[in-house]
Amino acid sequence: MALILTLFFQANLSAEYLYIDEVVQNPQFKADINKLGSELYLKTGISLKLVMLKELKHGQHIVEYEKNLIQGFKEPTILLTFSELDSKVDILANDASLYKYFDRRQVLSPVVSPVQSFVMALFYSDSLDSFMDSVGDYGGTILPILAQKAKAGEKVGKYSAALFNGYGDIADQIAESKNIILENGLGNTNKNVIFAIKLLFYSIVLYAVFAYLRRVRYRRRHKND
């Protein structure tokens, strides 16, 4: 117990899991990320760090930036990196074995639901292989939120919601892979956010179908006018 407490306090005192924040700069957001990151590290030994940049310097690619940054971490580390003005999000681990604990492609998918992925694959695929690849690409927990329109004063809130959702998704997946429970994990909260996004998407689709049918009916009634 003494060893666990020592490790816990060391993790909280020395580790900043919101490693860089040039975007949100909200004390509560920082506290929530560090609390979840500390618990994940204490229980799994994996350090999940969030990096939020205003802009990448000198046209640097986000992966190049991550590779340079991650060299400074000796423990198993996963970087979730966001650059606001570049509109880029990426995930990089310093050990390839860490990718088996979470689904990187799913977290970074721009698509929420299987229905949405099917529709997009149907319209944008140029071969059977690309269709099959696209139709299985859904379940995103960051980009669908970032894609939502927001007023100028609400952008920071959108960024914090999207990145916390993605951070929590990765943490929850790692915990599930290692058969542990995170007291500070998102759990049902994450599912509720995704449900809300799905509901919004389906509402838009239904409205578009309704508008199209109404327009067709109007044209039929007035075709002789």
| CATH fold group | Diaminopimelate Epimerase, Chain A, domain 1
How many E-type strands?
A: 4
Alpha-beta classification: alpha/beta
Average pLDDT metric: 84
Distance between the termini: 84 Å
The largest sheet, given as strand count, sense and whether it forms a barrel, is: 4 strands, mixed
What CATH architecture do you see? Roll
Q: Would you state the CATH class?
A: Alpha Beta
Residue windows where pLDDT falls under 50 for at least 5 positions: 3-14
Helix content class: 55-70%
What series of H and E elements makes up the topology? HEHEHEEHHHHHH
- C-alpha-based Rg, rounded: 21 Å
Shape: elongated
Portion in beta strands: 5-15%
Write out the strand line-up for the largest beta sheet, numbering strands in chain order.
Answer: 1-2-3-4
What's the domain count? 1
- Total DSSP helices: 9
Q: Explain this structure to me?
A:
The protein starts with a helix and ends with a helix. Helix 2 runs parallel beside helix 8 (155-177) and helix 5 (114-124) runs antiparallel to helix 6. It is built from 9 helices and 4 strands. The longest helix has 34 residues, at 188-221. It is of the alpha/beta class and 225 residues long. Strands 1-2-3-4 form a 4-stranded mixed beta sheet, with helices on both faces. 55% of the residues lie in helices and 11% in strands. The chain has one domain (2-221): Diaminopimelate Epimerase, Chain A, domain 1, CATH 3.10.310.50. Residues 3-14 have low confidence and may be disordered.
